[in-house]
Design brief:
The structure holds two protein chains of two kinds. By secondary structure, chain A is mostly beta strands. Chain A is built from no helices and eight strands. Classes of the chains: A mainly beta, B alpha+beta.
Amino acid sequence: MAKGVKPRVKVPKKATAGEVITIKTLISHKMESGQRKDKDGNIIPRSIINTFTCDFNGQNVISVELHGAVSTNPYFQFEAKVPESGEFVFTWLDDDGSTYTDKKSITVA
Amino acid sequence: MNFTRREALIIGAGAVTAAALPMQAFAAAIDDAIAAFTGGAETTDSGITLTAPEIAENGNTVPISVSAPGAESITILASGNPTPNVLTFTFGPLAGSQEASSRIRLAGTQDVIAIAKMKDGTFAMTSSAVKVTIGGCGG
């Protein structure tokens, strides 16, 4: 597991049924592209987050496939429809096999 | 060393070809990446909007946002990067809109290309030129 990985997600706490909300996610990760060389000229091996998904009550909102050209601390902003109260589950998959998750509940008034 | 006129011409032509090769290799890589996503299908240029800065001071983090109403998935390609694939957004049933933003790395001044795969199976492609002051691929 890469060091210092911390997911941060911004989701409104309340919404009306069927409302479209904006979600912002950021995860601290160095996203080593596999293109850089260390001072001895050896290529630093690639170590990135390769997949990000967001689900709401088991239904998919967005999934993203990441390659080496995504910036350090990958940031995403997207919109989701909220049909009912429930929980957003955010999942990031690392090249080294680790999984980072975060969950946010939302209440439909 | 003495060259005859003919030899000099051949060597000159060889040097020109060698210099042109990396450009061709980049162009081939981006064409391959486009074909891999579209499966060789024709693309239209309407129905997709890519927002990228005209000038990015730092190629390590270039904010981009893409929007394509009715799209199933959108892929972003960087034509001048060592590997052209950047990311692919796939929208699920609860996506509020076919719009997303992220931050990407660009190795230098180049065109950023966005291709959307629509629900009806057609493809829309757009590109945006970004000037990069400091490249973002190490080296």
